[in-house]
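Collaborator request, handled under Task 6.
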Amino acid sequence: MDGAIIQQCSTCKDLAGFYCNGCNRIFCQSHADEHHQSLYEQLDWITVDHDDLVQKLYRTSTIMQRNHPSRKIIDKWEEESIKQIRQTANEARHSLNDTFKLHLDELKEKLKLLTNKLNEICENSEVTFDERNIKQWVTELRDIKHDFLTTPTFTVRIHGNKPVVMPIIKIQPDRTHLTTPKQSQNPIGLVSIKSTSTNPFETFFQKRQSQTLINQNSDSLLDKDDRFHFKSNHVKIHDQGHLIIHDSSNEDASIGGLKEYSNGEHKLFFRIENLPANEWIFFGIISKNASLNEKSYTDSSSHGWTGYNSVYMGGKPIPVLNGYLSNMQVNDFVELTIDCDRETLYFWHSRQTYKNKLPIDKRTCPFPWQFLISCHNANVSVRLLPLSIASIITREQDKSNNEMRIKEIEFKKRNDSLTIQRKLTLTETV
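Structure tokens returned to the collaborator:
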């Protein structure tokens, strides 16, 4: 609204002094205020409608992805391909079994002929034999025995010894459906990943992502997978429990897992996506009975590994315990094994050629246990990997380290672990 124009008000015919550029009408002071207020009311309704659309969009995005007709086409192709591969593999196994059976039948036939000869000699005393016969029978028996004990070799040809060529699936939006003509540089779903990392596990992980078109933002964690669930201040959980990101402050923060562990062995795999140089992240466990706060890694039930080459037992740091080195960096992978039956933790990251072992005393850390991540620095982020990806990392880890050594604390007695904790507590009190 601008410019004072001396005309009659469009509403009450009084002297008007305000002109609206939007509706091209003029108003007096009173009706100009009413018109201005009506515009703000319309803006409020637009805002409400906007917020409602935002909530619906984020709430239903995962459902739309899962139930989209195009996804069903991909799922159907996957099922049919797996079915055909399994059928072909089963037919090949049956063929191999038939070949084994044929080989054994031949040996049985040879042995049967020799058996008949020997029986004839034993049952008929009139049949004569000499050293030449003995030598021949020994040779035949030795050959049959050798063929039986030696694993037969067969030639298996799979498409001329070349792997099956899998088709490339590309997802591209239907341009006639889009409301804006903006062109995308790359088709949706295809991400160019160029690895510059010297970490072999990171290179393999990126290669695997590009080959299988893994979308980490999708709901890829299965029910059997754990996820980030409880948190303190200064940190947020993203991607349906896949990812944690510290805020812009340099304050302690802690995050606990959803699942509870009281028996069996459980492996958890993480990937460090952002970590300032020479800074720390705590990986370990805490009792469910403990309350989660920013400094939960100092709780009397916490056990785990962190930066500055420190191991935490009962919430107390023990520097350089059994040669542990915390040289973790961005893009490193972390494996945390929770063995409830043996009351033990195992820890490994990409720069280690061994696993660290830590005993847990149930008196200070009673069941059930939950995994615990703590961090301090701004923008630190850690991703929890689904087990389907983690199994690939495990195989690559085993290839690089055929005999993965385990470094453990050599206590004379298990209860000696509590002695160390009491000494540290006494020292800090003094």
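The cover message to the collaborator said: "Helices lie at 29-67, 69-123, 131-149, 200-212, 387-400, 416-429. Residues 69-123 form the longest helix (55 residues). Please let us know whether this matches your experimental observations."
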